[in-house]
Write a structure and sequence with these properties.
13 helices, coiled coil
C-alpha cells in the first residue's frame, strides 16, 4: 500500500504546479505571448527588376551617353556604372599614392643635395642613411609605377578603355631599343604574359585573314590592308585601343612577318633580294674564328695600344743607354704590328660587321627581330 501511494502523490504535485502557473499567467495579462518566427517573403524577379529600374532611372540618359549604350537592359546599365565607378576609384587611389611617394622622393632629393640634417640629429652616418632611404623610395616608386601600369592595362581590357588612358609609341626599334611586351604593360605576372601570348597569336591569324603577304616587307604592304587589319584587331582585343596609332598591333604584325621571312631565307624557300646578294658572299669570306662586331674592335684596339706602349718603351731605352742588340730585335718584332696591314684588317673587319648588321636589319635575319 505504501508503494502505491507515492506515484499518486507525485502526480498530484504536478497538477498543483501546473495550476499555479496558469493562475500566474491569468494574473499578469500584460506579459506578451511569444511570437512565432516567420520567414521573410522572398522578392520575385519582377520586384527586383522594378527596384533596380527605380534606382537607376535618374542616370539612364547619362549612362547611355557615356557608354554609348542603346537598347540595353537595366541590369547591364547598372553593372557598367558600378564597374566604371570601381575602376575610377582604384585609379584615383593609385594616383594619390604615387603622387605622395613622388613628393616624398623630391623632399629626400633636396635634403641630400643641400646636405641639411634634421633638427636633433648629428650622426656622421646620417648621409648614408639618407641615401639608403632615397634608394628604397626610388625602388618603391618604380614598383608602384609598374603595378599601376599593369592595373591600367587590365582595366582597359575588361571595360573597353573607359578610363581613357593612352600609351604613346616608344622610340627606337622593337627588339633593339624596347621590348613590345613590357611597353604594352603586359610584362608583369603570369596572367599578363598569358594575355600577351593570346594577343600575339591572334595577330598572326589576322595578318593572314586580312590578305597581307608575309613574303613582302611591311613597308610595302598596301595601306588598305593595314587599315582592315587594325580595325579587326581593335574589335577583337579592346586593349589595343589604348596604343596610339595602333603601334602595338603593327609591331606584333611586323614581328610575325620578319620571323616568317627569316625562316624562309634559312630554308631557301624564299629568294633574297638581289641588291643584298653581295652581303652573303662577304659573310662567307669572313674568318669564322675572328671576333665580330664590338669584340673585334676592342681586340684590335687593344693590340694597337699594347704595340704602341712597347715601341715607346723601346725608344726611351735606346735614347738613354744606347740600344742593345736584344732591344733592336724586340723593336723589329714590334714594328710590324704598327704597319698598315693592321689598319686594313681592322677596316675590313668593321666593313664586314657593318654589312652583316645591315643585312640582318633589312632582311629579317637578326635574332632580335
Amino acid at each position: 500500500m505504501a508503494s502505491r501511494s507515492k506515484p499518486a502523490g507525485r502526480a498530484s504535485a504536478r497538477r498543483t504546479s501546473n495550476r499555479h502557473k496558469a493562475n500566474a499567467e491569468n494574473q499578469n495579462p500584460s506579459m506578451p505571448a511569444p511570437k512565432e518566427k516567420k520567414s521573410a517573403p522572398k522578392k520575385s524577379k519582377e520586384q527586383l527588376e522594378s527596384a533596380i529600374a527605380n534606382h537607376i532611372d535618374p542616370y539612364t540618359e547619362e549612362l547611355e551617353k557615356k557608354f554609348d549604350i542603346e537598347g540595353s537592359t537595366v541590369q547591364e546599365v547598372v553593372f557598367l556604372r558600378q564597374s566604371n565607378d570601381l575602376i575610377e576609384k582604384k585609379y584615383r587611389e593609385k594616383e594619390e599614392a604615387n603622387a605622395a611617394l613622388e613628393k616624398e622622393l623630391a623632399a629626400l632629393k633636396v635634403l641630400v643635395a643641400t646636405h641639411e640634417r634634421p633638427e636633433g640629429e648629428s650622426n656622421a652616418d646620417e648621409q648614408n642613411g639618407l641615401l639608403e632611404e632615397l634608394e628604397k623610395a626610388r625602388k618603391r616608386n618604380i614598383h608602384l609605377e609598374k603595378k599601376l601600369a599593369r592595373a591600367k592595362a587590365k582595366d582597359a581590357n575588361s571595360t573597353g578603355d573607359e578610363i581613357g588612358i593612352k600609351i604613346e609609341r616608344p622610340k627606337g626599334t622593337a627588339g633593339n631599343d624596347f621590348n613590345i611586351q613590357d611597353e604594352m604593360g603586359l610584362g608583369g605576372c603570369d596572367e599578363d604574359r598569358q594575355q600577351y601570348l593570346t594577343i600575339m597569336a591572334e595577330m598572326r591569324d589576322l595578318v593572314l585573314e586580312a590578305g597581307i603577304k608575309w613574303e613582302v616587307p611591311w613597308s610595302k604592304t598596301p595601306a588598305e590592308l593595314k587599315g582592315k587589319f587594325y580595325a579587326v584587331a581593335r574589335e577583337r582585343h579592346p586593349i589595343l585601343k589604348r596604343y596610339v596609332n595602333d603601334w602595338a598591333a603593327e609591331e606584333l604584325a611586323k614581328q610575325f612577318i620578319k620571323n616568317r621571312r627569316r625562316g624562309a631565307y634559312r630554308k631557301q624557300k624564299l629568294e633574297r633580294p638581289a641588291q643584298y646578294a653581295y652581303l652573303k658572299d662577304n659573310s662567307a669570306k669572313r674568318n669564322p674564328s675572328a671576333p665580330r662586331g664590338r669584340q673585334g674592335v676592342k681586340a684590335t684596339t687593344k693590340n694597337k695600344k699594347t704595340a704602341a706602349k712597347k715601341l715607346s718603351a723601346a725608344k726611351q731605352g735606346g735614347s738613354r743607354t744606347g740600344m742593345s742588340a736584344k732591344a733592336k730585335g724586340k723593336r723589329k718584332a714590334v714594328e710590324p704590328e704598327e704597319s698598315s696591314d693592321d689598319d686594313d684588317e681592322f677596316h675590313q673587319e668593321e666593313v664586314v660587321s657593318d654589312e652583316e648588321d645591315k643585312m640582318s636589319e633589312l632582311t629579317g635575319l637578326s635574332d632580335s627581330e
